[in-house]
Amino acid sequence: MSSTWIDQVRSSHNLQLAATAVASGLLVGSAILGLQKAKQQHRVSDLKSSIPDLDKDENVVKINDFGGAMQDASRSTKEDERSAALAARARLGDYDEELILEQLARNRVFLTDDGLKKLRNAFIIIVGVGGVGSHAAAALARSGAGKLRIIDFDQVTLSSLNRHAVATLADVGTPKVHCLRKRLEQITPWTHFDCRNELFVGSTAEAQLAPWADGHKPDFVIDAIDNIDSKVDLLAYCHKHNIKVISSMGAGCKSDPTRVFLGDISTSTDDPLSRSTRRRLRAKGVKDGIPVVFSSEKTAPGKAQLLPLSDEEHAKGSVGELGVLPEFRVRILPVLGTMPAIFGLCVANHVMLAISGYPHEYLPSKSRDKMYDGILASLQGSEERVARHLSQDPLGLRIPITAEDVGYVVEEVYRGRSVISGLASRLALTRWRKPEAGFVDTSIAGQKSSNIQIKDLVCMTKDEVVQHEKLVLKGDKTPEEVYDVKVVKLVEERMKEEAKYRDLR
């Protein structure tokens, strides 16, 4: 039967044409699919090749002695070159003012002509242009900020792309400051940029926060640094020199946008970076007066957190050698890409309102100076009673503790709570252990002073202090005999933690 069908095909001209058409169709279809697959592979190859190969010498980035990236930032496309040329002309005034005002129309009607003018004439410095800083810079440029100095030593990496405001795959391996300038020039070509591909440290603050070339002093500084030493140096310098500054606290490991607040640094809570920053600033005499963006979100089971380095990493030697710079981060901090953007936009929002004069009011500082004075007076009384109990004359006794010290111990060391009960009201400070009989120094004629130090103090409620004074300071018991293991361990942990900060005071 099959031979009969084949004979019919051979003898039928129409069937031969049909068979030829089917075969041709299959051949063309295969060719099209093959071409599409080849094009797809070519596009993937192009995409991969556009990402710098870190194995090649020309793409290896080194850090110079000043903290800047030793890399050519001139890689550009013709589109980049056209945008740069347009920006250069716009900054020289060769750009229609009506077009600028049209682009800024929504901000103009919100801030008023006078407010927008102030913003357009402003000089703002942004230190750190990663996830937070890049969004702050982009928002300020889009809103009309006239002069932006951006400072960052780092380069765009693939992992930066989940949170950076403008970086693309083509920017991977290039300095963040030049990536940001190049992209923002395509949006607001009239904005003046001063790019500093440098690491910010205390010794370079004067040069990096210096006036613009025309003598214009910075109207505002934005701290978007994630290195604690640099952050504290920047904030302390600005506070000392009366430069307006706003700081972004930790956005890492945060996920709840309803817990993001803007307020005085003294109100920031539940954030390790904020707590560490506050403690170091207190050591430099700065306890409040700096606005910060922070999250009050608490950690919980199942939430992201920064885990300790593994034993294997510690076994390799000094963990400091794992970082890109000394004392710099050596672990990958879990970051949800949306949270740095929220922090950055909050920072930019504050700067715009403050510069333009738009009404704004946030969480005020705690203003607990009266409470600290009361705690200091209570501690003075306790020392006098203990001195009298140990047969030493308490008349004229002085203690080397100030109200600033009281605030530091209560707020930063003991988190504003009693170490015994965890209560946060009617707080007081007292010695943890009974002093030796000769704790009053009378070596200077006419002066008596207690040898009490910050490291000796614990925070309790007033009622708990009365009991502690009776049993420990005047009695014969030790804290270990009075309190359970959990309380003693907590005190030891807090005292050990405070010792790490002692050299900074």
TrEMBL record:
GO cellular component: a single term: mitochondrial outer membrane
| Sequence ranges assigned to domain THIF-type NAD/FAD binding fold in this UniProt record | 106-362
What GO annotations for molecular function exist for this entry?
A: ATP binding; tRNA threonylcarbamoyladenosine dehydratase; ubiquitin-like modifier activating enzyme activity
List where the protein spans the membrane: 15-35, 122-141
What are the entry keywords?
Answer: ATP-binding, Ligase, Membrane, Mitochondrion, Mitochondrion outer membrane, Nucleotide-binding, Transmembrane, Transmembrane helix
Q: What does this protein do?
A: Catalyzes the ATP-dependent dehydration of threonylcarbamoyladenosine at position 37 (t(6)A37) to form cyclic t(6)A37 (ct(6)A37) in tRNAs that read codons beginning with adenine.
Tell whether Transmembrane is among the UniProt keywords: yes
This chain belongs to the protein called THIF-type NAD/FAD binding fold domain-containing protein
Family annotation (CDD domains): YgdL_like (cd00755)
The family this protein is said to belong to: Belongs to the HesA/MoeB/ThiF family.
Where does this polypeptide localize?
Mitochondrion outer membrane
- Keyword match Mitochondrion: yes
Among the GO biological process terms of this entry, one is: cyclic threonylcarbamoyladenosine biosynthetic process
Any single Pfam family the record assigns to this protein: ThiF
Q: Which InterPro entries match?
A: ThiF/MoeB/HesA (IPR045886), ThiF_NAD_FAD-bd (IPR000594), Ubiquitin-activating_enz (IPR035985)
What membrane topology term does the record carry? Answer: Multi-pass membrane protein
